[in-house]
Design brief:
Distance between the termini: 36 Å
Helix content: 25-40%
Number of strands: 10
Largest sheet: 7 strands, parallel
Shape: globular
Strand content: 15-25%
Radius of gyration: 17 Å
Number of helices: 7
Structural class: alpha/beta
Order of helices and strands: HEEHEHEEEEHEHEHEH
Amino acid sequence: RATDRRRRKVILMAGEESGSERSGLKTLLRLATLFDDRCDAGRALASALEGERGPNTVVVGLARGGVEVAAVVARALEAPLDVVAVRKIGHPLQPEYGIGAVTPGDGVYVRRPDGLTAEQLARTVEGAKTKAVQLDRRLHAEHPPLELRGKTVLVVDDGLATGATMIAALRWAKAAGAVRVVAAVPVAPASSLGLISSEASEVVCLHAPRDFSVVGAWYRSFDQIDDKAVIRLIADH
């Protein structure tokens, strides 16, 4: 466990949070720019992840937008590509307000119950998990999920906001038997990086701005990705 704690770190490949050494962040200074699109972000992220290249590395993108970034990373690292179906847990009284995230299987993260009883929370989580399972079936209709046991899994998204979906995906990968899980994103607020660092073997982020806003603000083109596009990316790879 002591070894795991020493290996657990956040690497900012570029960013404005230069004071982050106090929270255990290793900052590599390089000016960041906006990304043209997810493919552009994927190329930049692939360069930062070059050290993860190896026969036991698998790249997994969060559905849906994260898969487009992950596909570029997987191609650059010559690694297998897969997708994890992550769904937000919406508060039943305000569905757009997320209180956590789930995946099929054992990827569950609840940020806080926000006034829900244990029974209400359980029903809400199960409802979100049902949607995650349905999404997973659609995305893996043509190609079955990859085996993650004994692998190093690079869990890739197009950016983080609260970090809930990434935490659920990391827990899913660990429950599937991954021996090492790396969270990799082009952009995220520093507060979210600190949160997911306790869940990942390592966190790699290209840019952690002080004034984060939303993920899409850091892309010139940030189109929605549908199921067909995800399935096509997996098939092409």
